[in-house]
Amino acid sequence: MRVSRERIEKDLKDLARFTADTGGRGITRLPFTPEDRACREAIIAKFGDAGLHVYTDGIGNIYGRREGSQPGLPAVMIGSHLDTVINAGIFDGPAGVIAGLEVVRALNDRSIQTEKPVEVANFVIEESTAFGKSCIGSRAVAGVLDYDELATLKDKNGKSLQEAFREAGITKKEIEAARREKGSIDSYMELHIEQADNLIRADKPVGIVTAIAAATRFRVNITGRASHSGATPMGERKDALCAAAEIILGIEEIASAKAGKDTVGTVGNVTVRPGAINVVPGEAELAVDLRDIDKDAKDMATEKIISLIKNTGENRGVKTEYTITASDTPVPASQRVLEKIKEAASEIEIPHLVMHSAAAHDAAYLAEVADMGMIFIRSYGGSHNPEEWAEFEDIARGTEVLLEATLRLST
Ligand SMILES: [Zn+2]
User: Do residue 144 and residue 31 come from a single domain?
Assistant: First the structure.
């Protein structure tokens, strides 16, 4: 192999030292904390050691640039994020940044001069843990970050993201300046651990991502009539929770059998009022999350869920209302980048699975301004928990694919 498993392992273990005290329960590196700042300094030093020209944009995304031989060409960019959830593993995010860095070092080792520049990127605040919204840095790059909304995103102490940026000396103007023009980045690739078990089941170290799924989210409010659980005959009830139960099972059925083959639907939260053992529930509220990589299938499932909500209300004589709180569009990988990654994996004979990403990533936003592709790495123990684990050998194999794809895209 042209990439170094040892260097990748050392870097990931180095970065894992920058954590809040978790009592040994994985690592926690939230934005604007001392550990986050120290980690940023460490990656800047590592980029510098690899001979990269380091710069940051207005919102604090960090880039390391290796010039190409043809001035003026847009860069091939490889990136991910270094912030984590609470009690995270050491791979979700950092693996992608370090893989990019290792690609550059492998180019350096062989004195390979690419025509286009190669850049490695670290996007800020990818995790929604601290402020409740994900991919802040990459949304800014895509020009889809709403500055006014930042005032409404608050951490657990009530500080808004807008305030946190202001304290860090980052103003609206600077955040807007982080935006890149479409085409100013040639292509963007992100290596990330898989956050499910598809690669384990397929017994493959590497996944090649065809599309990133997107969510439609609903809040459903059901209003029946709260009444005495002993005194109200069964035929006289307007039980909001029974209606909610019917809707929950209906959503399961729609997502399982009446939508697209990749559709998944979840009711992750139910609030019942008044919530007493001796009262027929008068109100229920549901949080619905529907995801797909196929926009048409997701739209069709959305229509079916809306009909289900209405029909259930009518049949049960309860009032149902719904609000669609998010409706994002699934993001396909660019055919050009996808083909190069597939060619790369075949050329160097890395066993791989062609698959989609069920989770969101910075890559979904970079796709607004660059041709995008993603590489997944088999990961054990899930992610967003201390048990998350990828073999360094697998990351090295994925990085080798990334290197080969970079060579193909950068000339
Ligand atoms: Zn991640």
Answer: yes
Q: How far is the CA of 153 from the centre of ligand 1 (A)?
A: 20
Residues 183, 279: one domain?
A: no
pTM of structure: 0.88
How far, in Å, from the CA of 190 to the mean position of ligand 1?
Answer: 10
CA of 226 relative to ligand 1 center, distance in Å: 44
Alpha-carbon separation of residue 230 from 148, 236, 279, 284, 396 (angstroms) = 50, 12, 8, 20, 65
Q: Yes or no: say if 62 and 79 are a contact pair by the CB < 8 Å rule.
A: no
Tell me the C-alpha distance between 316 and 163, whole Å: 47
Tens of pLDDT along 145-178? 999 999 999 999 999 999 999 999 999 999 999 9
Q: Report the alpha-carbon distance of residue 118 to residue 64 in Å, rounded.
A: 8
Q: How far is the CA of 408 from the centre of ligand 1 (A)?
A: 25
Distance between CA atoms of residues 365 and 135, nearest Å: 8
Ligand 1: centre distance to CA 177 (Å): 24
Q: 373 and 313 in one domain?
A: no
